[in-house]
Every structure is written in C-alpha cells, then in structure tokens.
Write a structure and sequence with these properties.
Elements lengths: L1 H15 L2 H19 L3 H18 L3 H22 L2 H20 L2 H43 L5
Amino acid sequence: IRTTLETLALTKAVDNMTPESIAKMRDILCKANQALAEGDIESAAKISREMHMDIYEMSGMDRLVTVMNTLDEYMDRFSYMSMSDEERRQTAAREHDEMVDALEAKDLERLIQVSNVHLEGARIKCLAAYEKHREDAKRRLEENKDKRSRGTADI
C-alpha cells in the first residue's frame, strides 16, 4: 500500500518542488544523519519520516496526505525496526539523499526507482527483524518450559 501511495505522491510532488522545499528536505536529512551519528535511532527514524511526509504534502493531494498520516502512526515501529541495522541505516541515508537529488532534478523515473528500492529494502529488513523477534520469543518459551519441567522456571 505504501509503495503505491508514495509513487502516486511522487508523481505529483516532483512538479511542485521549489528550491525552498528541497533545502528543507536537505535540512531534515542533515538532522537525521546527526541523530544517527549520535546513536539516536528512534529520532533518526522519526526525522526521516518527516522527509517522506513533506513529499506527500508537496503532492497537493490532501486525501493522500490524510491517509499517509494515518499510516504513519503504524509506521513508527517498523521504521525503528528497519533502522536498527547499521547497514540498512547507511543504505537508507544514501537512498534519501538520492531521492532528494532526483526531486531537485525533477527526474521522476529515477525518483520512483530509488523510492521503490528504498521501500523494498525497509520491508525486507522489517520482515527479517520480525522473524528474529518471533524466533527469540519461541526460544524463550521453550527455555521456560524446560525450566518448569525441572522446577526452575522464571516467574
């Protein structure tokens, strides 16, 4: 859903970009990179989402902005999961820069390509993090079963 809606937003936003909006996005990315440098992944993820929200707003599609704002409430945890991996953080930062470069150049084809790769990378990382969390929970459950059978379970 997000990829489809973001692509729609990009097709409209690319023509509405101004030097001021590009400068604002670059400032947002600078703040996100600073938060990453300080190890503040949660803030970096939140700040990075601001860039995406700016794109939605620049589309001029009020209903899309409303839908994306609603989705953003659910994206918080997934953004953190995606950004928890160092390699993914570096890749996402580079992709964000490439997206702003494409917006500035009004290169819609490149913009959509980078955005799709960006969202797919985040999706893959989130699914991997979720699977690891599930496996860890299953392992802890099994360990507690073993402990209970020996009378040493965690309370």
